[in-house]
Specification:
The protein has a single domain, classed as 2-Layer Sandwich (Transcription Regulator spoIIAA). It is about 30% helix and about 30% strand. A hairpin with a 2-residue loop joins β1 and β2. Strands 1-2-3-4 form a four-stranded mixed sheet, with helices on one face. About 5% of the residues have low confidence. The protein has about 120 residues and is of the alpha/beta class. It is built from three helices and four strands. This is STAS domain-containing protein.
Length: about 120
């Protein structure tokens, strides 16, 4: 069992209509508020059309992290903003498929994800 890595959210605005939030570390019960705060602030941008969550450096997520992603999905839908989860690690991809939540993030549940890796601590 490895130690938890604190979550950091790096916000970038590559275009007037796009905000990208890089997730680094663990998205879990103690850190979901950081993601929620970063996305809430991003959604206040008047011309925002696309919110990208870059998951390349996401190390771990638990059920609270998954719940936070679903809440962000609901908020972006309500704001008519496209949400993209990019650079998903295999453990996130597997978790989305196994819980059938993949459909909430614009992907085909039949596509599957290779490998046995799970998001576990």
């Amino acid at each position: 069992m490895s130690a938890a890595t604190p979550l950091t959210c790096t916000v970038m605005h590559p275009a007037a209509t796009v905000t990208s939030i890089g997730l680094h570390g663990d998205l879990e019960f103690r850190t979901t508020r950081l993601l929620r705060a970063a996305t809430a602030e991003a959604l206040t941008r008047p011309r925002l059309r696309t919110l990208v969550l870059d998951c390349a450096r996401l190390d771990f997520l638990d059920s609270s992290g998954l719940s936070a992603l679903l809440a962000v999905r609901a908020e972006t839908d309500a704001a008519d903003v496209e949400l993209r989860l990019e650079n998903r690690p295999q453990c996130l991809e597997q978790l989305l498929h196994r819980t059938m939540l993949i459909t909430h993030f614009g992907d085909d549940p039949a596509s599957g994800a290779a490998g046995p890796e799970l998001c576990e601590r």
